[in-house]
Amino acid sequence: MEVVLYILTTVLTFIVMEVVTWCTHKFVMHGFLWVLHADHHEPKYPHVFEKNDAFFVIFAIPSILLLYFGISPELNYLFFIGLGILFYGIAYFLVHDVLIHQRFKWFKNIKNRYLLALRKAHKIHHKNMGKEDGECFGMLLVPKKYFRQN
């Protein structure tokens, strides 16, 4: 039974991270930490790394701490919360940096309806170059209107 609860904790944490990501993106990245996120909205950013990449570190710190304290002194729920955050971070990297922005050319010819809608929603987000008046701040949940446009 404990294994099932650990799995549920990991999955629930992954799901909650979409809400955390939406709120962080809207109120922090497009708010007081715009200074780190602004370069991400520049078209054809010329460098390998962006200031925006600092958010990977910012999100990794709680995950690492939870993983550490989740095995010390013995395995506990904190580990599985950290694991859920880690899995979301991996998904974020694959979806946002690889699939959407194609910083790595691994998945170039995607025809999946959901993934195309996801890319369209993110493109709309980047259409606005400034910090205000944005939309589509999440990563995995896509408004229905973007499915109709594919």
TrEMBL record:
Stored Pfam families: FA_hydroxylase
The keyword Membrane is annotated on this UniProt entry: yes
InterPro entries: BETA-OHASE-like (IPR045019), Fatty_acid_hydroxylase (IPR006694)
UniProt keyword Transmembrane, yes or no: yes
GO BP, sorted A to Z: carotene metabolic process; xanthophyll biosynthetic process
Keywords associated with the record: Carotenoid biosynthesis, Membrane, Oxidoreductase, Transmembrane, Transmembrane helix
GO MF terms held by the record: beta-carotene 3-hydroxylase activity; iron ion binding
TM region(s), chain numbering: 6-24, 54-71, 77-95
Annotated Fatty acid hydroxylase domain residues: 11-138
Recorded family membership: Belongs to the sterol desaturase family.
Listed name of the protein: Beta-carotene 3-hydroxylase
